[in-house]
Amino acid sequence: MTVLGSVALWVAFLVGVWGALAGIVGGLKDRPDLQRSAQHAVYAMCVALIVAVVSLEVALFRHDFNVEYVAAYTSRNLPIFYTWSALYAGQKGSLLFWATVLSLFGSLALLLTPRHHRVFLPYVAGVVALVASFFVSVMLFGQANPFQRLPYTPVDGNGLNPQLQNPGMVFHPPMLYLGYISITIPFAFAMAALLSKKLDADWLVAIRKWTLLSWLFLSIGICLGMWWAYVELGWGGYWAWDPVENASLLPWLTMTAFLHSVMIQEKRGMLKKWNLALIIGSWLLSIFGTFITRSGVISSVHSFTQSNVGYFFLAFLIVAGTTSFAVYATRLPLLEADARLESMVSREASFLFNNLLLIGIAFSVLWGTLFPILSELFQGTKVTVGPPFFNQVNIPLGLALLALTGIGPLIAWRRSSLPNLRRQFAVPATAGVFTLLVLLVAGMRDFYVLMAIGLGGFVTATVVQEFARGARARHRQYGEAYAVALGRLLARNRRRYGGYIVHTGIVILFVAFSGMAFKTETEATLRPGESVSLTSPYGDTYRFTHLGISQYDALNRQVTAATVEVARNGKNIGILTTEKRQHVDGLGRPTFQPSTEVGIMSTLRLDVYTVLAGVVNGTEQAVFRFTLNPLVWWVWYGGMVVALGGLIVMWPGGGAPAVKRTQAGYAVRLVAEQ
Amino acid sequence: MTAIRRTGGQADCNRRDFLSAVAGTLLLAARPPVRLSAQSPDSLPGTGPSGRLWDPSRAGRPVAPVTAADNDAALQAIEKQIRCTCGCNLDVYTCRTTDFTCGVSPAMHREVVALAKAGRTGPQIIDQFVRENGVAILMAPPKRGFNWAGYLVPSVVIVAAAAVLTVVLRRWTRAAPAAATRRPVTGVAATPEELERLNHELDRLSL
After folding, report:
1. Which of residues 149-188 of A touch B (CB under 8 A)?
2. Does A91 reach chain B within 8 Å, measured CB to CB?
């Protein structure tokens, strides 16, 4: 099967190169035969790469340890679930996964794009084939071929890193990859619009679902990554501003900016240059993220093993960035706006400032991530840029963004009058101030927490107000019951009201993040029967009693499990188990350093987080770290609300008629004003 | 039934509990043999001899009991400013309380504790680490020289961009009335009352 896989890779590469040439040349020369051939090349590439994936999976499941990748990432006793996910656990397999999904997305884009957008497809096929060919070329020429064989056959494989043996890691990397990869489709359409000089709003309509899909995958991937870090890494947090985490945040920020600014182009025909630049930038940042993860240029706990593929990505990044912006520069005269901004107090202006903040945060994250390299370059000293730096720079920007999340939807398109502003802001501003006062009276004094929750109250009130007004309007106009009106409001204008649900999720996330300011923890050495107490930020006393330690074998690991009884204010609320796991191969030989499994008890108010640090002198006397993490569950809940809102926004139907209605409204207004 | 209780690591059982335990053991022994899997070795809470684990090597690196210094908030604050040099990208406190395979962060922690016991203040302890390891030992670059660029460039760029954006927007808004009159508009058949109603609805719904 590995021979078949290798052959499939070569076929994919050759077909991809042809597809890239045929697509771009066929588009520029208007050659229908080449255009068709390019599209067929993308389909063929997809089939070849699926064959390669199946070949690798077969090798993984057959435990063909003569294949270097199989021996490096699996073992005979690795659970099936993780044997499957080993496909993208290592550098080589993840490159194959990337190229395959890209060709699959490319094929779907070619198949599903409506007929009236067909003019873009040759270029789309060309760009997708080019990018996918690059990934295949890295495998073939960058010593990253997943089918590479060893000169001998080990009895058993190395097994999968214990930290990757977690359900979060089965879903988090593919989700993030899907987010990164799917940005290539909007990028391909943007390049198609530039190359074909069809720079009206058509290409934006063609990519709407893809941009949302990509943003949704990135959002879910980032949230799953946070969840994995929290439950698996054992440090009691979910975001550490690690370079690889930052790399995933960068395209999310620019895509979020795009999703807002694209509305201005759709409704007013403005910001054409900006939107194109955002899409190109987002795609380049996705490649940059890949470069960071795979090059080892910046140290990160999430990086793949250092290898020379980093150079491939750096070269590709430079060439692709230069080429894309060169084409962009030649088309600038064709990208003049159809309309002008009419007032500084308009939704367009607020969206521009929202874009400024999103791009500003992206810039500061990128700056902080690269600053160690710049420091080494300019002052010969490598510095560390950790969470204190990023928090200092980004928390104020994030709060300003949260404020704009509420302000934007309250300001009318084109211009807002003072009475309009007063009517729109009265309730939300009151809600925000009231929230702030309640917190102050309750004794809260942390400035950032006060701002986060106060602004959260303001934004939530804007969302509630928008839903209430919309439902009331339907109730008056159509006589619908309020519940029905609310449902139909959401169904008829999914983009707008789904967006408000996303805003609600963002508020929940900000409030949940602020909970981390009140994290309390203690370390304790306990013999069985002994206890330690910890007071939560809510004033409750938690008592942890060490019950004892069990040792047993399970699946592919030897487990040392400590059991702790938890009581709140003297009342027993449950038992937590935290483990040390020594993973072994099929022959019982230890494979990795012992890992730690945390014990977590989640409630809406806080998480009780328990970690077994180790045992003293081989006895049941154990060292624990007990942490009380307020509001953590709300981080996951906020992520789910964001994803739900994203799904509603991208759900087919409901959106376009509203846009047309609005545009019709403006046309009518313009007539009236004349 | 609790045959044997543990209090402070000491076995504590009375005669009745002891006899019950012996009887239970005999009954279990008389039972048909159960095929034991590899999971059977189990120290079960509180039943191991002298609380010793069945296989201590499985429990990871042995650790020392926690001392008061380990929970000292002032020392933790210092350790959160110092990077562990094992390559984990974490600060010393987070690493030593998270990565229990790391031998570096516990050693760095011991050094912090020793310096504190020797009467050094927080800044002096941090300076000592910087002298020994360079500024890369700090979790955030010190605010001096080129490092100011790290802190200030994002804010300066954003403020400058905001200023440019404001100027551009003002210019656009001044040019807007002229541009609006040039814009071709297709006629829409609507009575003044209908237009007024539509305007009112658009304003109300803030579309």
Report:
1. none
2. no
